[in-house]
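Reposting from the mailing list since nobody answered there.

I have sequence plus structure tokens for a pair of proteins and want to know whether others read the tokens the same way I do. The first protein:
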Amino acid sequence: ISYSGTQLVYMLEGQMSYRYGKRIVSLHEGDTIIFDATTPHGPAEIEGEKARYFCTLLDSQALEAIRSERPVEKSLG
């Protein structure tokens, strides 16, 4: 799967192998990955009996809206 935006995956429980492009990343409980969702990605294999994870997508239009509304922080130094 691939689509426009930025994706976040947070492992709630267990372990799994997650594919990102040609790479396979082993995720364990508490791990987080954030990546460009235009690269093909998705769960490759559950390592053990079960795995639970939270996944969310922030599309490119939403990211641009957030960036344009966020005040620019100025250095005090």
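The second protein, same order (residues first, tokens after):
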Amino acid sequence: MTHPLIPQIVKMASPVAAQLGLEVVDATFHTNQYPPVLRIDIRNLHQDTSLDDCESMSHALEATLDAADLIPDAYVLEVSSPGIPRTLSTDRDFISFKGFP
């Protein structure tokens, strides 16, 4: 089940990602951990996603989330690439990985 804040977080994170040439692929909020972990998966639209992409997105999104004060308590922001075993969920995913097992 998706956390109720996820749609708002994705709505805020998507323009931040676009400014960096990135795309938000997925977001999850693990509230069963202490502190809770907000994980944002990103993809570079022009090349393989790098650690620098994740770091840039983390810093930019952190400022945006802090300004919005959407999450009132302490949490960990984790920005990552979705990696190889991710689920294909959009038309773009199917086009990108067509022909691969």
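Reply #1 (J.P.):
I read it the same way you do. The CA atoms of residues 55 and 79 lie 7 Å apart.
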